[in-house]
Amino acid sequence: MKITVDFEECLKDSPRFRATIEEVEGDVCELESKLDKLVKLCIGMIDAGKAYNAANKQFVNGIRELAQQSTKDERRQGVPFLVILFDQAQRSIKTQLQTFVKDDLRKFKEAKKQFDKVSEEKEAALIKNAQAPRNKQHEVEEATNILTATRKCFRHIVLDYVLQINVLQSKRRSEILKSMLSFMYAHLTFFHQGYDLFSELQPLMKQLGGQLDQLVVDAAKEKRDMEQKHSTIQQKDFSNDDTKLEYNVDADNGIAMEGYLFKRASNAFKTWNRRWFSIQNNQLVYQKKFKDNPTVVVEDLRLCTVKHCEDIERRFCFEVVSPTKSCMMQADSEKLRQAWIKAVQNSIATAFRDKGDDGEKLDRKSSTSTGSLDSGGEPKERSLKGESALQKVLAIPGNSCCCDCGQPDPRWASINLGITLCIQCSGIHRSLGVHFSKVRSLTLDTWEPELLKLMCELGNRVINQIYEARREELGARKPQSGDPRHEVEAYIKAKYVDRRFIRRPSDEELRTKVVSLSKQEKRLSSSSEELRLGPCLKVLEAVAGLEARRDSLFCPDELDSLFSYFDTSSKLRSIKSADSGIQNSADGSREMLAATPSNNSLTDEMAFYEPKEYSPGLQLFWASCARSLPDMAEALAHGAEVNWVNTEDEKRTPLIMAVQGGSLVTCEFLLQNAANVNQQDAQGRGPLHHATMLGHTGQVCLFLKRGANQNAADIDEKTPLAMAVEAANADIVTLLRLAKMNEEMREAEGPYSQSGQYNPNSPTEVQYRRCMQEFISLHLDQT
């Protein structure tokens, strides 16, 4: 240990010792000042470091948010290393140096105080001893004793003080060096860990550098493209500011058309507000801001009409009328108004379009094929919508996944094929045309019972066994959910349009199939005979007093009320009946309930005979009579004409044979596949004639709704109403009379608007459709 102050010198208390003490004390004071300053600077550095760490964390989090990284990303950062560095600085400099100042320097100051005090006492003792008179012995002794004691105390204290000085001078170097060295090691660790961190990030930095180069190239290319587009658009002629709008039913976002329109409010002030309108999912909606939830103006465009409005002050106005309300809108120009009117009409036509000769007209007047029978003010007890139809259809084996791509939980269906589809495949099916596939929503549309029953008797498994019979043999890959749209579209066209995967039957296989179906029809002949005699048996049961259930859908009081409702126009008070024996009152209907029945149905049972040629049309012919929908679908897939005529059997068609089979669902399936509801056989009788002769009430309702001509006469000049009168079938007579009254009421009440568009919400139409649906539902319940 190096001695700063000599112990021998301190005992002498020489001027050299005093000078050394003063030098040491000044040095210690300067050291204390510098240490205090260093500690304060360290505290400031630590506080600034904490603020820097907090700011650094916020900066890193900002980078994360900018890069849209997950909050669970655990990548290493430099922030924890900085925290460790500043914590070590606090330990090595602040804590250690503060301890040195508070402990060691405090002891030095206390020793200095004692030394200064004993030095003064010694100086005083020396002066007193020198001043003691020689002749006063007691004062001399007292001064001598005091001086001796004071010197002894001074010697003890000065030695301790010098020891404290020497220890302090030695310790100050080690303490300061220790703290500085610890702080240097902390920096060394910090930079070493930083080096390791960025060494690990070096591959990522190289990757990011490559991406940066590519981004620079892409940005330059995009800039050129944008400048080119800007120049091209700038050169266009903007003399006409009208935006070209087109109706696109297969738009990727589901929005068929959109744009700005002025909407007249329904308040008392009739204010006009500009809103963003769009047509999507057969609904007309608008919104004020993009984030706002769309407001539905029209729930279902199929129940609406659209017309020009020229009787108001504003220009370019048109009106969309729904069953419950109307909405007045204004476009910016005449071209835009025409575009919106055409878009609304196309949306209605998309839902109601039919491939048959009179399908477009009939689908607008009726709604069994592709629309709902119900209007806004009608009860819907018999129709199913939303989850009810969805659950029933998806419960069929194989229907829980899309028929074409296998995506689970399909929400769309092809009603003429009887399959379920996902939204992507439904758009592709819709683009094929209604002669290939008619698409309907399982959740947004209303489902009639007969159509729902048709879906439940077919299904994905049955149809795929037909349309994909040779897929594996040909090595064709079936698309999966998530495949590109063009691949799925190519597969669907190959499957349904080109029919590439169908297995063509041999002549022997086709003959076996036809013979089997004819035998199956014979097994059903007894039940068919029972159906033909059904109305007569019901009348006899009523006469005999059997009260199992009502003979007719309507009781006498209801018939009075029903006919009186339709008989409100003076023009209808002298309606000519199809038979003079039927009076224009409910009494005529009640008289028929007691009339003697006569069976004018097909006199002979259908007997199978060996045809000249076997064909898919003949298979469809016998499958329709045998009520076998899978065989019917197979025949259509093999190319059978839905309106095939059997020239060897009085030119009967599959639809007439379906009537003979007695199945309403079979008739519905043929009608959905564009069967002609008015095609006649060799006797001049259409399906309506045969359904009337057989007493099939439900089929009569179905054909009337699908536009069957009830005034058509056979070669004997008999209409369906005349046949029903002869058979004394009160229900069918009532239906035919209501249909005739409804036609004349259309002319009297004007169910068509001034623009010639069909109005499905007139009282006559509502009442008539309700009656039709009640009869069909009752028939389905019975069968």
From TrEMBL:
<dbReference type="GO" id="GO:0005886">
    <property type="term" value="C:plasma membrane"/>
</dbReference>
<dbReference type="InterPro" id="IPR001164">
    <property type="entry name" value="ArfGAP_dom"/>
</dbReference>
<dbReference type="GO" id="GO:0008270">
    <property type="term" value="F:zinc ion binding"/>
</dbReference>
<keyword id="KW-0040">ANK repeat</keyword>
<keyword id="KW-0175">Coiled coil</keyword>
<comment type="function">
    <text>GTPase-activating protein for the ADP ribosylation factor family.</text>
</comment>
<keyword id="KW-0343">GTPase activation</keyword>
<protein>
    <recommendedName>
        <fullName>Arf-GAP with coiled-coil, ANK repeat and PH domain-containing protein</fullName>
    </recommendedName>
</protein>
<dbReference type="GO" id="GO:0010008">
    <property type="term" value="C:endosome membrane"/>
</dbReference>
<keyword id="KW-0862">Zinc</keyword>
<feature type="repeat" description="ANK">
    <location>
        <begin position="683"/>
        <end position="715"/>
    </location>
</feature>
<dbReference type="GO" id="GO:0005096">
    <property type="term" value="F:GTPase activator activity"/>
</dbReference>
<keyword id="KW-1003">Cell membrane</keyword>
<feature type="repeat" description="ANK">
    <location>
        <begin position="650"/>
        <end position="682"/>
    </location>
</feature>
<dbReference type="InterPro" id="IPR004148">
    <property type="entry name" value="BAR_dom"/>
</dbReference>
<keyword id="KW-0967">Endosome</keyword>
<dbReference type="InterPro" id="IPR001849">
    <property type="entry name" value="PH_domain"/>
</dbReference>
<dbReference type="Pfam" id="PF01412">
    <property type="entry name" value="ArfGap"/>
</dbReference>
<dbReference type="Pfam" id="PF16746">
    <property type="entry name" value="BAR_3"/>
</dbReference>
<dbReference type="InterPro" id="IPR045258">
    <property type="entry name" value="ACAP1/2/3-like"/>
</dbReference>
<feature type="compositionally biased region" description="Low complexity">
    <location>
        <begin position="367"/>
        <end position="376"/>
    </location>
</feature>
<feature type="compositionally biased region" description="Basic and acidic residues">
    <location>
        <begin position="355"/>
        <end position="366"/>
    </location>
</feature>
<dbReference type="InterPro" id="IPR027267">
    <property type="entry name" value="AH/BAR_dom_sf"/>
</dbReference>
<dbReference type="Pfam" id="PF00169">
    <property type="entry name" value="PH"/>
</dbReference>
<keyword id="KW-0479">Metal-binding</keyword>
<feature type="domain" description="Arf-GAP">
    <location>
        <begin position="387"/>
        <end position="509"/>
    </location>
</feature>
<dbReference type="InterPro" id="IPR038508">
    <property type="entry name" value="ArfGAP_dom_sf"/>
</dbReference>
<dbReference type="Pfam" id="PF12796">
    <property type="entry name" value="Ank_2"/>
</dbReference>
<keyword id="KW-0472">Membrane</keyword>
<dbReference type="InterPro" id="IPR002110">
    <property type="entry name" value="Ankyrin_rpt"/>
</dbReference>
<dbReference type="InterPro" id="IPR037278">
    <property type="entry name" value="ARFGAP/RecO"/>
</dbReference>
<keyword id="KW-0863">Zinc-finger</keyword>
<feature type="region of interest" description="Disordered">
    <location>
        <begin position="355"/>
        <end position="384"/>
    </location>
</feature>
<feature type="domain" description="PH">
    <location>
        <begin position="254"/>
        <end position="349"/>
    </location>
</feature>
<keyword id="KW-0677">Repeat</keyword>
<dbReference type="InterPro" id="IPR036770">
    <property type="entry name" value="Ankyrin_rpt-contain_sf"/>
</dbReference>
<dbReference type="InterPro" id="IPR011993">
    <property type="entry name" value="PH-like_dom_sf"/>
</dbReference>
